[in-house]
Amino acid sequence: MSDESVSARRFARESMAVLDRLTESAQDDVGRAAELIADCVREDGVIQAFGTGHSQATVLEIAGRAGGLVPTNRLSIADLVLYGGEPPNVLDDPLLERRAGVAARIYELAAPRPQDLFVVISNSGVNNVVVEMALHAKEHGHRILAITSLAHTRAVPAGHASGRKLADLADVVLDNAAPRGDALMELPGGGAVCALSTLTGVLLVQMAVAEASALLIAAGERPPVYVSANVPGGFEGNLELEKRYAGRVRRTAS
What we know:
It contains 10 helices and 7 strands. A 5-stranded parallel β-sheet has the order 2-1-3-4-5, with helices on both faces. A two-stranded antiparallel sheet has the order 6-7. Helix 2 packs across helix 9. The termini are far apart. The mean pLDDT is about 95.
């Protein structure tokens, strides 16, 4: 039996408690996020989701998944190679997300339209590429939805030359309620284990998508959502829905 100070049972108990609190405390912000999403869909926009590191797990919860909205795009640093012609070894640079100009190039490769919504995800909200993406989107008139940890971002210095953080630039901020450093349980002798932000980020995304779908339904519109490709007719039906956004959404094997 593991020590209760660090155990599966404790992590489950404490993370579920955070999820329960977040379900109630985030309602107003989720409602505002849902309005951004629903407006984007109504205006024939695409939801451009971007994050680095493990924030990409939450990006995947938005873009191109069963039960999710069709007009969604996953933006990634890997786009520099997949679509931008850079050599694969450019991704070997562990500090690439801190390099100036990276976000601008990713934005350019996505070729977004003015009505597109940017969802930018970062637990810290301070890495250069994340702030640069939000700045670039804002300069081009896009609305921005941020998913970040306010506890973390308030506790660390800005990493961008502007001195700004992701939360400063967003039209709506969804606080994922993760602690500074993300890990939930302190270890004896220092450090902490078991990150929280993916669990809470997924909850916030699905709450916002649910609420946006409700807004579309109330307006007499059918939400354009994916069916699992692993049910009969799902793959073919999804291809039909994607035709409306041809050339604007990317779907790769990964």
